[in-house]
Design goal:
The structure holds 2 protein chains of 2 kinds.
Chain A lengths: L15 H11 L2 H8 L1 H10 L7 E5 L4 H4 L6 E6 L9 E6 L2 E3 L5 E2 L1 H12 L12 E5 L17 E7 L2 E9 L15 E5 L6 E6 L2 E2 L18 H15 L3 E8 L5 E7 L6 H5 L10
Antiparallel strand pairs in A: 1-6, 2-3, 2-6, 3-4, 4-5, 7-8, 7-12, 8-9, 9-10, 10-11, 12-13
Chain B lengths: L1 H26 L5 E3 L2 E8 L2 E9 L7 E3 H6 L5 E10 L2 E14 L2 E10 L8 E3 L7 E3 L17 H11 L1 H23 L7 H13 L1 H26 L3 H22 L7 H24 L2 H26 L3 H20 L7 H4 L8
Parallel strand pairs in B: 1-9, 3-8, 4-7
Antiparallel strand pairs in B: 2-3, 2-6, 4-8, 5-6, 6-7
Helix pairs in contact in B: 1-10, 3-10, 4-5, 4-9, 4-10, 5-6, 5-8, 5-9, 6-7, 6-8, 7-8, 8-9
Classes of the chains: A alpha+beta, B alpha/beta.
């Protein structure tokens, strides 16, 4: 028992130091690298029959932008090795121009500049050159939309040694600028692993009790297709080779259960969302 | 697990004791020795050891030796490396000789000037430059013995000399402050913008004084963020160009301030690192503000500055230390960094972060 553990009921929460130690111990650099590489991990998942967002185009060179005949009606621009959802741009064509979901306008020049920034590595850390991904825009299933609906919510499952140990539903808001990122103001909802039922709601990691009315989530609401989500996520975690993994899932408007991303350095905020320690039921 | 922890603790304990022992050895004679107006010194040359009476003269900068005597004891006099000396008789250019000598039990290396001292009271004169660490009581004479070189560990003297000079102290303190940042992050849970930013800022604060330095820093960073947001971002330049322009801006701002405050501008080499790291800091803060929220950016800057102030305080304290204690702390901070890296318990900030999981909530 460590000194600070006495603040908590047993077991204490999984802390950053311990998590980093587990990552160093278990997650090989090769697997971490592969998971970060969106193009590569999407190909791997697709080869095993797991649904992922369609790739329209990969751009590895600034000159290629000029060769793009036309942009799709609506699409997503992503840095291939982006960190924490930075650098992702969701766009809709409006004639010669584009708009993002918050209504900001982008000219063709702005889009090119954004692509150039990604290529220069501004979003992949340490200014490493990166690839750009033009991807299909996904919409959430009707069953995953509540009162306020901006951006794409996702379901994060935390895996340890191939077993899902905790899950949460991340719901983007206007404040989070449509991103499902908790520290940017998205709402986190705790999920019961067995039933897929929502158990807790937290906004900005502050407790708002089990106020299901906040979002208009009906009492006793369960994530649709929960069994399938769990099963697909488990297979994806296994394919990634990561022992400690966060798998992000979505059910889209065509009722496809899809993997959005696999994270080899999953965050610990999920414990606050579920008001439970990750060490519960884990044999380290 | 338990055995491993006990093992680590034991290793740390033994290492600390060993270091303490070394520190004590270093400390022997660590308090300032008093020398009189004349002292016996021992000159170590290729031809052997020679004792001589030396006049201790705080009115002279460098030491000098009589030409005849120097030749007799086999010192190598270099006529090619003459040195301009301002004496009471006017400017002279004197030949020099590299000398190793013992004074008050301590070995010193120096460059003596060679001159005619035949009619003078002593054949060797020791000037200020070779009296570092000693206190002179001119009313008394022959208070010390030169000591013998064999009894001393040369490494001990080197270590002591290295830590005794103020500029070397800075060199020793730099990694110590770095390991303090590591401890604050891994045990305290205070994240900063990298480990170098707070350390380098701390050095600027030490240079300028903690509070004036902090004010200047806040001024520069807020101006920088303002310029970056309101001006530079409008040009939509690539990342590297933006940083280059920020460096221009920071240097211009520093020059501007020095127009108002003449004595302010530190030597160029001293502003180098702070300027580079500050421009990165500003760039990063602007990016954080764009990608996330302004609050996150300010929080990161604030934490970095707070840690830098803490480091500057620690640095002020370390600079006052004796060589031996400083070396002890140097070694101890290596252990501290290792121990912090091995620490897998909760960080001090985590009971707050995970307060929803607290007992009895």
């Amino acid at each position: 028992m460590k000194p600070l553990d006495r603040f908590f009921a047993s077991p204490p929460p999984l802390g950053m130091n311990r998590r980093n130690q587990l990552i160093r111990m278990w997650n090989s650099n090769a697997c971490l690298d592969a998971a970060k590489d969106k193009i590569r991990s999407k190909k791997l998942l697709a080869a095993h029959g797991i649904a992922v967002a369609r790739t329209y185009r990969e751009i590895g060179d600034f000159r290629q932008i000029a060769l793009i005949p036309s942009f799709p009606d609506t699409f997503v621009i992503k840095p291939n090795r982006g960190l924490g959802g930075n650098g992702i741009l969701v766009l809709e064509s409006r004639g010669e121009r584009f708009v993002n979901p918050s209504g900001e306008r982008y000219g063709v020049e702005d889009v090119r500049r954004h692509i150039r920034k990604i290529l220069d590595g501004e979003y992949s850390g340490y200014l490493e050159a990166d690839l750009v991904l033009l991807e299909e825009r996904l919409y959430p299933a009707a069953g995953l939309k509540f009162r306020e609906s901006v951006g794409l919510p996702d379901i994060r499952l935390f895996f340890y040694r191939g077993r899902a140990v905790m899950a949460m539903f991340r719901y983007p808001t206007r404040e989070s600028r449509g991103r499902a990122n908790l520290n940017q103001g998205a709402i986190g909802l705790g999920i019961d692993l067995e039933s897929g039922r929502i158990t807790h709601i937290h906004e900005k990691s502050q407790i708002t009790a089990i106020g299901f009315d906040l979002l208009g989530v009906p009492a006793g609401f369960a994530i649709p297709k929960w069994g399938e989500i769990r099963e697909v996520a488990t297979r994806a975690a296994e394919l990634s080779g990561l022992i400690l993994a966060g798998v992000d899932m979505i059910v889209d408007d065509r009722e496809r259960v899809m993997v959005l991303e696999i994270n080899g350095r999953p965050g610990l905020e999920i414990q606050n969302i579920n008001e439970r320690s990750l060490l519960e039921g884990i044999d380290l | 697990m338990m055995i491993r922890i006990t093992g680590i603790v034991l290793v740390c304990l033994v290492a600390t004791l060993a270091l303490w022992f070394l520190a004590l050895r270093l400390e022997d004679g660590g308090e300032r020795r008093i020398v009189g107006g004349f002292e016996t010194i021992r000159l170590l040359t290729a031809a052997g050891d020679f004792e001589a009476t030396a006049k201790i003269d705080t009115g002279a900068d460098s030491s000098s030796i009589d030409a005849d005597f120097a030749r007799r004891i086999g010192l190598e006099v270099k006529y090619s490396r003459r040195k301009a000396i301002l004496t009471s008789q006017g400017l002279q250019r004197r030949p020099t000789a590299p000398v190793t000598f013992l004074l008050a039990g301590e070995s010193r290396k120096s460059l003596f000037t060679v001159t005619e001292r035949g009619g003078l009271s002593a054949r060797v004169l020791i000037g200020k430059r070779d009296l570092e660490g000693l206190v002179v009581d001119p009313g008394r004479e022959f208070l010390t013995t030169p000591g013998s070189p064999a009894k001393r560990w040369p490494i001990t003297a080197t270590l002591r000399n290295l830590a005794a000079r103020p500029e070397n102290k800075g060199l020793l303190i730099f990694p110590m402050l770095g390991s303090l940042v590591v401890v604050l992050r891994l045990v305290g849970g205070i994240t900063t913008y990298g480990i170098f930013a707070p350390t380098i800022i701390a050095f600027t604060l030490l240079e300028l004084g903690i509070w004036p330095g902090t004010l200047l820093y806040l001024l520069l960073v807020s101006l920088g963020i303002g310029v970056n947001f309101s001006l530079l971002r409008k040009f939509k330049l690539p990342h590297v160009a933006e940083i280059a322009l920020l460096i221009f801006f920071l240097v211009a701002a520093l020059v501007g301030i020095s127009v108002l405050e003449q004595d302010f501008l530190p030597p160029v080499s001293d502003v180098f690192f702070p300027v580079v790291i500050t421009s990165h800091l500003i760039e990063r803060a602007t990016k954080t503000a764009e990608d996330h929220r302004m609050l996150d950016a300010l929080a990161l800057l604030f934490r970095t500055l707070i840690v830098a102030i803490l480091l500057a305080m620690a640095g002020t304290f370390l600079l006052t230390m004796h060589a031996a204690t400083l070396w002890f702390c140097f070694m101890a901070s290596i252990l501290a960094a290792v121990a912090a890296g091995k620490y897998t318990g909760l960080r001090l900030s985590e009971p707050l972060r995970f307060r929803l999981l607290r007992r009895g909530k």
